[in-house]
Structures are given as structure tokens and as C-alpha cells.
Amino acid sequence: MQDNKLHLQDLEKINRYNFRALCDALSRPGSTQNLKKAFHSYSIACASVLLYAEVSYINLTNEDFWALHSICNAKQENLEHADYIFTNNLDSNILSNAKRGSFKDPEFSATIIFCFDDNCMQNEYRLEGAGIDGSIIQKYPLQEELMQIFLHNNQHFPIGNEIYFLNTQNGEIKALSRTTKMEVI
Each residue of 148-164: pLDDT tens digit? Predict the structure, then answer.
């Protein structure tokens, strides 16, 4: 019993650390934060922070969320209705079908967590917007076509989506908020 209690205390400590990293990444697009692993996985560590009984998700990654699902009891949902979308393959279908909220209820939008590895091609973008001092140049594993869809989805603030980019090999995480403006370099 003592071992389980210690393990849950460790998970709580990891979740607090990772929560701050996720908040920092989203509030400062272009910055890179680092997650700590939970259950031997950066993807599950991210999900452990975001998922709880009142939200829904879809897992389109290769990770097994079973243990985490048992702990947090979040509802599994389809792509069009999920609050959180975990994916190894960010494509136009996901960006086009993720819920974007409404002017009355912008919080009913999906957050996308793109889990990628070091082999994923990255493109340079100039970023501007909230949390960025002037403009910065940063690389993201996002094709230009998908960047255009992201910008289109976010053109009528507060409607839109956020995307986290999680490197599953080293735990580095970056984000793009719905207020971020981008252009290809």
C-alpha cells in the first residue's frame, strides 16, 4: 500500500511540473519547454496533465492510454467531439474536423497534441502575437498546407484551436495558440 501511495505522490509532483511546462509553452509560442516522463512516456505524461473525468479525448497515437484512462476516467470520443486529440500524424482531416468552439463558448474547442519524433521534418516560421515580443523565427513540424488550415481555423478569435508539438524522444514541447500569426520563412 505504501508503494502505491508513493507512486501517486510522484505522479502528482510530475503532473504539477508538466502543467507549468504546458502553460509556459502555450503562453509563449515559440518557446521550448521540457516534460518529465510519466509511465515511461512523454505522451502519457502530457495526457496525465490534461485528462480528467469532465473532458473527452481521442488517442490516435501508438501509445496505450489504458492505465491513464483508468486513473483519470476521461471519456473516449470521436475526432469531431473530442476535447483533446493526441496524434502521431497531424493532417488536414484532423485540423479540419477538430471542434473550434463558438463565439459564445470558445472553450468548447479541441486542443491538438501532435506527438512526433526527431525524424519529423520541421519548417521555419515567423511567429507574431500574444506572448511573443515582436516576432520570432522558430521551427515546427508543420507543413505549410497545415499552417494555412490552422490560420484559417483561428481567423475569428476567440474561435479556434491550440496545437502542442511534443517530441516523444526527448520531451521537448512547443505550442501554437489560437492568437498566433505565422508566415513561412
Answer: 999 999 999 999 999 99
